[in-house]
Amino acid sequence: MANSILTKISPLWKLPSSTLIQPSRSTTSKHFNPKYKKHRAQKYLKIDLPDTNEDDSKLSPEKMRQKMKERGLMPPRPWMERPFYISATGGVFEGYVPPEGDGKASLVSTTRAKQTVQLLEKKSKSMMAIRKIKSYDEDFDSKEFCNEAQNIYIKAHESLANNDKYALRKYVTEKAYPEFRHNSLLKTIRWKFLDSLEPPRVVHARCTDIVSKENIFAQVTVRFHTRQQLAVYDRFGRLIHGSEIVAKDVLEYIVFEKHLSNLYGTWRIHDKIIPDWAPPKDPSKLTRLKPEPEPVSVVVEEEVEQPAIADK
Prior knowledge:
- This protein is of the alpha+beta class and 312 residues long.
- It is extended, with a radius of gyration of 43 Å.
- The mean pLDDT is 83.
- Helix 5 packs antiparallel against helix 6 (165-171).
- Strands 1-2-3-4 form a four-stranded antiparallel sheet.
- It has helices at 2-8, 37-41, 61-71, 110-136, 142-161, 165-171, 176-181; strands at residues 188-209, 216-233, 239-259, 268-273.
């Protein structure tokens, strides 16, 4: 019986090759397409990584220089240099002093007469500054500049009223930008330029150099006497300043600045001169929280019992 079973089961080496399962060799590290094998190998670059455990303090200066040269590093410098660009000055140099009562007072007053004489003395410096500006900008003309300054003045205030921060930076300097935007958050501004009571005119001009003699800035003060409308609303829509119906006469002295050494420099609003004799501004109606009423404390006086006195 056993012999019959052995004869029925034949050994594996005697079975036909078609009945055996031959294992096939497959690796996942190779690409299935042998084409462009060389190009794929060139994608990987062998990089010599730096030894993090190496102590640089024990290396000699020559060895350190050799290692930095191999890595393409520049030697460190004992000082720190950072390039910076000065696009505007930090203030007004030799600011214009407006004559007392300008636009209202007459020439009869003694203070006005003294200031007129001082302005005539300072006029020569302004003429020299304008000549300096013309040496950099040949097309500069004080009369034509007044019209350009008025357009810059109007566009700057319209950008502020429209809350356009990017357009405002084109018309004001870095010093005047925070002063323009001060206290304007969450407020609605309605501003309108009506007309000019007097044509704008240049009253002051100065030039100065910063850091080097070739880096020159120019400042020109323009007098504006205009009629405007201004209304400011808070975040609740309440009127806190001005009116959209009533127009007011405004006398202002605006300082415009330009970087003359910069080929692409433009005239921008830099500051506003407020004279000492100017009347104070009307206070704004600010919105405040109504304070809670304080609790009323009732003081109860306790009666002090007096000891009884015996009759004599």
